[in-house]
Fold:
Amino acid sequence: MDAISIYKCLCDRQRLRILNLLRSGPLCVCLLMEILEADQVKMSKQLRYMKGLGMVEGERRAQWMVYRLTDAENPLLVENLKCLQDVAGERRVFRDDLKRLERIRKHSAAPPRTCEKP
Structure:
């Protein structure tokens, strides 16, 4: 993963929102779709792009995919994710996404990695 690829990925608002949510742990595509109010095609396209760069990893669970941040220790990516963490506290859109995620998790009897809705 080179610097240009990382910065190309990080210059997209939706991908930043996805990465911010994945910092809290693995999430199913269906939860990402619900929180970001995006359709499955657009969400899958973004996740496939980030997976191709090695930023996220996916695991199939029934008909859905669960994504998480990769364990690969790319120093540039790690530093940019730390920066995203700092910005997330300041920007409303990132805070709102995390609040939606918490509401969904609170109201769901299912573990956070499943795709069952409350």
About this structure: The mean pLDDT is 85. Strands lie at 27-28, 56-61, 64-69. The CA atoms of residues 84 and 102 lie 19 Å apart. DSSP finds six helices and three strands in the chain.
